[in-house]
Design a protein that fits this description.
The chain is α+β, with helices and mostly antiparallel strands. Helices cover 29% and strands 23% of the residues.
Length: 305
């Protein structure tokens, strides 16, 4: 991995009687998001968190704090941190494969966090043999290991030049979809409304490209920080109008019409290469003649105090 990207876990991957040294690296992180500190408005200083007694309201220093499990309203069983630490399972630093299963068998509602799984230099041949065999067999591996103080189930799949290991939610952590959907109305959509919806879907088909996904909230925060730094006001966001049931068919018709118009525009012959180059030259000239202004880029991606 690139320098600066520290392994979250190092150990061994074992399948059958074969094992090889491996490392887990975080595949997704929120560390680049803009974060804020809590500030005292009066002094402008950062505020520190202090734990206080819920009854006496006296501050409780760290050395006097312990763990407790609530058994009744306001009644707790006291558990020392040493007792909690004693329950952590002993780790043998091994990801042991229990079974190989078809990739399609796993419901992604069980997916927790992804990690890149890379080989140790000494065990690269066994690692590559497993990766290539899994690719050809179109299977994923279910493995177990003590990760981050818990016995975790991990789904391992081929990914690029290596493997990706996704920690799995426990069954008791995944809520049933029946309760979530129990109030779904029993509707049957057919006729023009269904045809228009299918037409819109067919016209808007594309490919999965995560680079096109924009975090609008993060961008809005960056604009807010930049505006604050420059003493400017932000424009108010436009209100999103939700389609009402009475207007749904009209909205579908309008969407289908706009998509047809867009497709027709795309079908128009493009300018010749010579004309296109001339146009680009004019645009470059216009940009070159424009007066220089302050940078309009988003605020630096750093913590804002």
């Amino acid at each position: 991995m690139a320098s600066g990207h520290r392994a979250q876990w190092k150990g061994f991957l074992k399948f059958g009687e074969v094992s090889c040294g491996v490392a887990l690296y975080t595949a997704a992180s929120t560390s680049e998001r803009i974060t804020f500190n809590t500030i005292n408005k009066a002094s402008g200083n950062r505020v520190n968190r202090v734990f206080i007694d819920s009854e006496t309201e006296d501050p409780v220093p760290k050395e006097k704090q312990t763990k407790g499990f609530e058994i009744d309203n306001g009644q707790y069983i006291i558990i020392d941190p040493e007792e909690v630490a004693a329950t952590i399972p002993e780790s043998n630093k091994t990801l042991e494969v229990d079974a190989f299963i078809p990739c399609s068998e796993v419901d992604d509602v069980y997916f927790d966090k992804p990690y890149y799984l890379t080989p140790d230099k000494m065990g690269a041949d066994a690692f590559v043999a497993l990766r290539d065999a899994m690719k050809k067999s179109n299977v994923a591996a279910i493995a177990r290991a003590v990760l981050f103080r818990r016995v975790r189930t991990v789904l391992i799949r081929p990914h690029g030049k290596g493997l990706i290991a996704t920690t799995m939610n426990y069954d008791y952590e995944v809520r049933s979809s029946k309760k979530a959907f129990e109030e779904m109305p029993k509707l049957k959509i057919e006729g023009e409304m269904l045809d228009l919806a299918k037409h819109i879907i067919a016209t808007k088909k594309g490919d999965f490209d995560p680079a096109t996904f924009d975090d609008r909230y993060e961008a809005a925060l960056a604009d807010l920080v930049k505006a604050k730094m420059e003493g400017k006001a932000l424009p108010k966001p436009k209100k999103v109008e939700v389609s009402k049931p009475n207007d749904l068919l009209a909205a579908l018709r309008e969407s289908a019409g706009l998509l047809k118009a867009g497709a027709a525009a795309d079908a128009k012959p493009k300018r010749t290469a010579a004309n296109a180059n001339q146009g680009n030259g004019r645009q470059r000239a216009a940009r070159g003649a424009a007066p220089k202004t302050a940078s309009s880029g988003t605020a630096p991606r750093r913590k804002a105090s």
